[in-house]
Amino acid sequence: xxxxxxxxxxxxxxxxxxxxxxxxxxxxxxxxxxxxxxxxxxxxxxxxxxxxxxxxxxxxxxxxxxxxxxxxxxxxxxxxxxxxxxxxxxxxxxxxxxxxxxxxxxxxxxxxxxxxxxxxxxxxxxxxxxxxxxxxxxxxxxxxxxxxxxxxxxxxxxxxxxxxxxxxxxxxxxxxxxxxxxxxxxxxxxxxxxxxxxxxxxxxxxxxxxxxxxxxxxxxxxxxxxxxxxxxxxxxxxxxxxxxxxxxxxxxxxxxxxxxxxxxxxxxxxxxxxxxxxxxxxxxxxxxxxxxxxxxxxxxxxxxxxxxxxxxxxxxxxxxxxxxxxxxxxxxxxxxxxxxxxxxxxxxxxxxxxxxxxxxxxxxxxxxxxxxxxxxxxxxxxxxxxxxxxxxxxxxxxxxxxxxxxxxxxxxxxxxxxxxxxxxxxxxxxxxxxxxxxxxxxxxxxxxxxxxxxxxxxxxxxxxxxxxxxxxxxxxxxxxxxxxxxxxxxxxxxxxxxxxxxxxxxxxxxxxxxxxxxxxxxxxxxxxxxxxxxxxxxxxxxxxx
Length: 545
Fold this sequence. Notes:
Layout: H1 2-22, H2 37-49, H3 64-69, H4 72-79, H5 88-99, H6 104-127, H7 132-143, H8 146-152, H9 157-177, H10 182-199, H11 206-219, H12 225-228, H13 230-253, H14 264-272, H15 287-300, H16 304-314, H17 319-333, H18 345-351, H19 353-357, H20 362-376, H21 380-400, H22 411-430, H23 434-454, H24 464-476, H25 480-493, H26 499-510, H27 514-527, H28 532-543
Helix pairs in contact: 1-6, 1-7, 2-5, 6-7, 6-9, 6-22, 7-22, 9-10, 10-13, 11-13, 11-21, 14-15, 14-16, 15-16, 17-21, 20-22, 20-23, 24-25, 25-26, 26-27, 27-28
């Protein structure tokens, strides 16, 4: 436990340094981007803390992609009184807002604290699977994993699920290692409670719960049935206890008892439509997908199973293409980069030297995790909960749709495997067992070559929105120089994008630099002939002496 506390202190120190650096930029302003999930969770939490604790007001965002599919009224009919997404995270934020300023920074600070705890929990889970040295390596890799810091900076449920899943793995492994009796039953009850919490945070953990219950029955196959079923019964009791408030709320407002999210149908459509590239979310500009989604949801009345059946029928003449799409999605799940969604990890890296120069990314973790997976197969029975957690969760993610942040909650398990891989290589080197080391070294080198070929430079994974939000953030602080610098970077990376010269023109006007403002507005008007603001400013400035 002493080492777990030291890891927590080290991880917390890294996060303090990171936060002190990132708060001086406008990166965190992305949390209030009006078309982001972060801002949605912020507004949802505000609606709860302002009195709607039962969700009777049916909070649902309405973003441009939704408007392209159907009217707000139609979406409301499809949703009914069901929570927009699984409700634990917005209620978690709402409780924080009861005691802290109602702004994203309050949540981010708590998430950074929980993230540091998650590093220690990963170490504790790893101790049940491998040697102390390998487990300590897992804790250190967690502490140095850059995307953790990034996701903890965003008001997204993925940031909460990382330490929660690390805790689940530790408690499950402790339960499985305990001799049958009251102590083991308490661990299994705790496992059920935590998995229930994860379920009402994101329901995709449900297959793991079912598989884990079956594993406990298999593990106890030599015991009498009454004792054999105790772990599964304890888990079920804990699970039901945790989800019972959500079920009670559904009864109170007239929602279907077991339904805790509306997102399934549209997510399945997004990830399995004929035009899907294998990663990301469609936007309203692609009318093919918008019309396709409208027609399917109208046919299925917004219900998951009929929607999924309709999507699969559309592939009936091309099953090989559907299988290929799933393989492409699997490839993107293990891609060495963090594809932007809601925010950009690469933009944070460009603005934070700690992320850029002193942390690890998935580029480094994934090859080591593959080595660790191979090594772990010698003790596959011990690692079985880890395998079930990864395989069930990753499969559900791929079947629906893939974005980089959906990988983050699985990282505690993947980092444990990466630590095992790294430690095994070090041990082989120390023992001079070169013949055994050679295949691992070749596989490792091959993985790094593939990752190098498939990755992107940071400027290739940023979005115009990242710069535009930061420009507004700097301007709100009165930092015109930083806003102007961001506009200049945006112009360079996204040539022909009229928003950046227009932003420059506005800043120059604030500074009474009329000649430069005129040049900037002229450029914006030339790049976007429909830009009435720039044309109006050009006309005004040209008339000035």
